[in-house]
Amino acid sequence: MLSSGAIFFAKHRRRSDRDQDICDSLGIRLISYSPLGLGMLTGKYTPSKLPRGPRALLFRQILPGLEPLLSSLREIAQRRRKNYTTSCYKLVHMQGYHSYTGS
């Protein structure tokens, strides 16, 4: 019997809510993989400071549209006097997702 499932989850993907609903209805605990969007939501990268390799192509297309979300996340972290990345993970956990990070 399946008791948990890991999916790629990032706050900027709307499909994740549907995945959560399906897993909840089946009694499956959802574990989010890469909840910070492969690094896009970490605040480390900008359209002018991209990662190396294939992710640079993806990030170049997506990062400009994420700026309103990134700005809001920075504001929340600053207002609460918390680390930006910690605040992002807190948001993921508050929505009922469990996460793990890769190296």
From TrEMBL:
Domain of life (superkingdom): Eukaryota
Matches recorded under InterPro entries: NAD(P)_OxRdtase_dom_sf
SUPFAM superfamilies: NAD(P)-linked oxidoreductase (SSF51430)
Protein name according to UniProt: Aldo/keto reductase
